[in-house]
């Protein structure tokens, strides 16, 4: 009989294929947790405590002593060892790094130290390994979508899941779609009545992420149709997982191999082409986290990271260059918009607001909140669920007050968290642009 724990630990090995061959093994990836880019900033910490006053987790629980304590302060004494298990309550939202006036890579240090701790203590649970298998979950759930959704909506089943696996009974779950994005691409008819002549802008690569391929198929479809409507020839290559969920759960070997393999797939779609995504957190993995946190050095990553943009970022840049058609119909609505942590970490500003407010009659209220509490897989876990809910409580209240019918957010898991906890339907900004171009009606506003 095989040992599940031993089998699970093997999942943090370099995966087979070109990506796996190009990346160091899981143990070597953990050695880079003393990554120069993060550690070089360590002694710049002057203990001003700004990171702690801005930390959304520290504000709601005593279980987390704060980013300064578990980060630059504790790192001076670790010497390759883990110091305090409380670091596991860091949600990796990245707020601490963004607000640090000294440029200390606080969030990166914390993530690296947590990965080392989990490797040394064997603290990566079977649950944390299962929830990193996002592509596999999509492939398994899609053929049986009605059954999968019914089970995930069944309270007794969720109680069993909580007790056996450790996923909280009330945590938001993705809704399986009966057809994958690949199925839609294979059977659809392309629109011929595009606003700009079809393909006249040339090719552009679309990166949809795991959720966009299986759980948020409608968002991917609308993004593709918007891009085609304004003249792009959209290329959608076969693509796997970016490894973000694995990285945030300490599985650096698995994550490193996954992200390099993905970059090779995207790179093969066309040399020098812009890569546009609706998966904001996954784009952040390519642009920032794979290198800054895990120290991945691979030509494919270096190339792809510089060519990747979020779809709102692309549309804003086109508008600033005078190349975005303003043939928008009027949509009278005021909605709350929450910019996710992963998007803010990419230092692109808030392009979604700039683009949505081009639509006549459409008003956007930026949340001003640090985090929704989900932080990828953080809010799923039974021991962290209440913390995640407390972090997002003021956001959920704001969303309901601004418009009980619709809210907007760029990343998938954040949308699921906001929608489940506030009761307000939450969509990607591209839904607004799709509707404004007359390609659809905007749910919750134009029902």
From TrEMBL:
It comes from the Bacteria. One of its GO terms (molecular function) is oxidoreductase activity. The keyword 4Fe-4S applies. It holds the Pfam family Fer4_8. Residues 36-66, 79-110 form the 4Fe-4S ferredoxin-type domain. Keywords: 4Fe-4S, Iron, Iron-sulfur, Metal-binding, Repeat. The keyword Translocase does not apply. This is Anaerobic glycerol-3-phosphate dehydrogenase subunit C. It comes from Actinomyces weissii.
